Amino acid sequence: MKAQHIINRHWCKGCGICVAFCPKNVLELDMEEKVVAVRPEDCIGCRVCEFRCPDLAIEVIVEREHERAA
Amino acid sequence: MKEQLKFIQGNEVCVEGALYSGLGFFAGYPITPSSEILEYLSRRLPEAGGSFVQMEDEIASICAIIGASLTGKKSMTATSGPGFSLMQEALGFAVMAEIPCVVADVQRFGPSTGLPTQGSQQDVYQARWGRHGDHSIIVLTASNHQDLFYITVEAFNFSETYRSPVILLLDEGVAHLREKVIIPKQGEIPVIERLRTSVPEGVDYHPYLPREDGRLPMSDFGGSHRYNVTGLFHDMWGFPSTDPKIVHGLLHHLVDKIESNVNQIARFKEYFLDDADFVIVSYGSSARTALHVVHSMRRKGEKWGLLELQTLWPFPCSLVREKCEEADFVFVVEINMGQVVHEVKRCVDYPEKVYLVNRVDGEFITPTDIKNITRVILGRGV
Amino acid sequence: MDISIKDYIRKRFFPHLWCPGCGHGTVLNNLLRAVAELGIPKNQIVMVSGIGCSSRISGYVDFHSLHTLHGRALAFATGVKMSQPHLNIIVPMGDGDALAIGGNHFIHACRRNIDLTAIVMNNRIYGMTGGQFSPLSGKGILATTAPFRNLDPAFDTVNLAISAGATFVARTTTYHFKEIKEYIKKAITHKGFSVVEILSQCPTSFGRKNKLASPVEMLKFFKDTTALLGSKRLEQGPDLIPRGIFVDKEVPEYTEEYQKLIKRVQKNT
Ligand code: SF4
Ligand code: SF4
Ligand code: SF4
C-alpha cells in the first residue's frame, strides 16, 4: 500500500493532534510548526489524521495494491 | 376577494391589513393589549395558507419572523411595551441585515408593567431609539380603523421597498375600539411584493449591493443563491468585514435609505390647516380627540386646524415646519410626558410657540382636557 | 469513492479563525463529511448559528448561512423551518449560547419537536469573551469569572434535552470523530428535533487554566473520561460520561403537523 499525504501548509496550525494520534508515528512537526510526513512508508492509510484535523489541512490518499494491479 | 364591510376591533383591522398584504408567517407571544392580533391570526393565517406559531417569548417571536422573512414570506409579530423592549436586540439585527418585517406595538401605559390595560403613546422614542447603535427605522400609526387598514398595508409595502423592519405603533385606544371598516377588494390598493434578484444560478449574486435606486433585490433561503446573513458589519456578499470603508458605507446606507426618502415615507392627514392660527399636531387615538376639538373651535369661529401624523419616523420635519409656519400657536397633543413635541420644536422656526398638551394618569385624553390646557396656555384663564 | 468536503466550504475564509487545536474545527470537519455522505444538495441546507466561537462555523460552510444573535439561533431557525419545511436546518451552538442565554429556546424547540438539527459544541467555557464559566462548566473548574473554582453545578445537556422532549439525543466528543459523523447523519435524517452534544476542546480558554495544556491532552481526556452506552467500560466506570445515542424515537413532527392543520382548516373554509 502506498499513501500520499497532501498537506496544506498554509492551513495547518501545528496543533499536533495528527502527530499524537497517528498509530504509526508517520507525522512530525517541522521547524515552522507545520506537519510533515516523515515516514510515509509506515502509513497504514487509516486517515485518522485527516478526520481529526481541526483545520482540514491534511488529506491522505491511499492507493491499495489491488487497485494498482487493476 | 370582494369588498367587505366589517364592524371590528382595531387589532382585528390590523390583522385584515396584514392578510390583505399577503402575510405568510406570524410568530407572537400573548401580551395585553395586543393579544387579539395573535388570537385572530392563529385562526385566520392557516386558513389563508400561512403559518402561525406561538413562541416561548417575544424575543423568540421576532427572531422567528426574521428567519421566515429570509425564506421569502411576509412576516409579522405583535406585542406591547414590555414585549417590545425584549424585541429590540433582534430588531437591530433586522435593521443591520436589512430583513423586511412588520412589528405591531400596541402601546400601553408604562414604564414597566405599568397599567397593562390602559393605553398610552409612550413608545414613540422606544420605537425610534430602542436599539443600540446608529440607524434609522420606519414607524407608522393611525387614528381610526379605515386609516389603520391602509397604514398596515403601507407598513408591509415600506418594509419590502426599503428592506427594513417597520413598526406599527398602535395604541390601546384604537386597538380595542370597535368601529366600521371597509376592506377593499383585492387589487384595489397597491400591495408591493418582494423584489427578488434576477441574477441566474451560477452567477455571482451580491445580496448587499444596492441597485441604482437604492433597493436590494433578495434571494430566498432555499433558492439558488447561497449567501451569508449576519448582524456584523458586512460586505456586499454578507460576509463580516471591519474594513473602515465598508463599515462607513454600510452605516450610511442604512440611515440614508430611509432618511433620504422621508418625503416618500411621510403619511399624514390635515384638517383646516389653510388658515389655521392654532395648529394641533397629533397622531393615533389622541388625534381623534384633537379633531373633535378642532371641529368645536371652528364652530365657535376660531381658526383651529389639525395635522395628524401617520408617519412618526423618519420624522417628517419639513412637512411639520411648513404646516406650522403660519400658526400663532402649535399644540402637540399626545398621551405621554412629551415625545413628539420635542421633534416638532426641533423642526419649526419658532420652537417657543410649540406647547405640549397631554394627560398622563392612565386615562384617555378628552376634548375637555385639551380645551382646558390650551385655555391656560393661551392665557384665557382656568 | 470519497466525496471532497472541500466542495462544502467557503475556501476563501481558510485558514479559519479558530485557535490551533480548537475542537470546533474537528466538528466542522466531520459535519461536512456527514452532509457529503448524505448527499444533500447545498441549496437544501440552511445553517443557523448564534454568537461565540462556535457560531463562526456558519461562515465557513457553503450553505445558506444565517449568523444571528447570542442564544437565539433556534428561534430564527424555527421561523425558517416553519416557512420552508422541506429545508434541512442545522443549528450549531456553543454551550453558553445554547444553554445559558439560549436555554429557553432550547427547551421549547425540544418540546415542539420541530425538525431542526441542534449541535451543541460544548467546550465548557465562553471562549470568545476570554474564558468565563458557562452553565456546562461544572463545579470546581477554573475560569476567568471563577478564580476560586466554580460553585455552579452544570446542566447535563442530554438529560435536559430528553426531559424537554427532544426525539433524537446523542453525545460524543471530538476525539471520537467517527461518532460525530454517524450521529450528525442520523440527526439530520431524523424527523423531529435532534440534539447532538459534542464535547469539544478549547485549549486557549479552558485548557490552559485547567491543567490540560494542549489540545492533544484534552482529546486524551475525552478518551479517558467517556465510554459508550452499553459498554463494559461504562458499566465498570460509573463516573465516566456516557456517549452514544440516548433517544431515537418517532413522534409527530411540528411542521408536518402544522401543514396538516392548514390542509384541514382550508377544507373547512
Ligand atoms: S491536525 Fe491539522 S492543523 Fe493540527 S498539526 Fe495536524 S495537519 Fe496541522
Ligand atoms: S493515515 Fe493513519 S497511519 Fe497514515 S499518517 Fe495518517 S494517521 Fe498516520
Ligand atoms: S478561544 Fe477556544 S473555542 Fe474559541 S477558537 Fe480559541 S480554542 Fe476555539
Write structural notes for this entry.
The complex is a heterotrimer of chains A (70), B (382) and C (269). Chain A starts with a strand and ends with a helix. Chain A has 70 residues and is α+β, with helices and mostly antiparallel strands. Chain A has 3 helices and 4 strands, in the order βαββαβα. Chain B is of the alpha/beta class. Chain B has 2 domains: 180 residues, Rossmann fold; 108 residues, Rossmann fold (3-Layer(aba) Sandwich). Chain B has 14 helices and 16 strands. In chain B, helix 1 runs parallel beside helix 2 and helix 11 packs across helix 14. The longest helix of chain B has 18 residues. Chain B is globular. The N and C termini of chain B lie far apart (54 Å). Chain C has 269 residues and is of the alpha/beta class. In chain C, strands 2-1-3-4-6-5-8-7 form an 8-stranded mixed sheet, with helices on both faces. In chain C, helix 2 links the parallel strand 1 and strand 2. In chain C, helix 1 packs across helix 7 and helix 5 crosses helix 6. The model of chain C has no long low-confidence stretch (mean pLDDT 96). At the A-C interface, helix 1 and helix 2 of A face helix 1, helix 7 and helix 9 of C. Strand 10 of chain B pairs parallel with strand 2 of chain C, so a sheet runs across the interface. The complex binds iron/sulfur cluster (3 copies). One iron/sulfur cluster binds next to helix 8 of chain C.
List keywords for this structure.
heterotrimer; B: 382 residues; alpha/beta; Rossmann fold; 2 domains; 8-stranded mixed β-sheet; 5-stranded mixed β-sheet; 22% strand; globular; C: 269 residues; 11 helices; 8 strands; binds iron/sulfur cluster
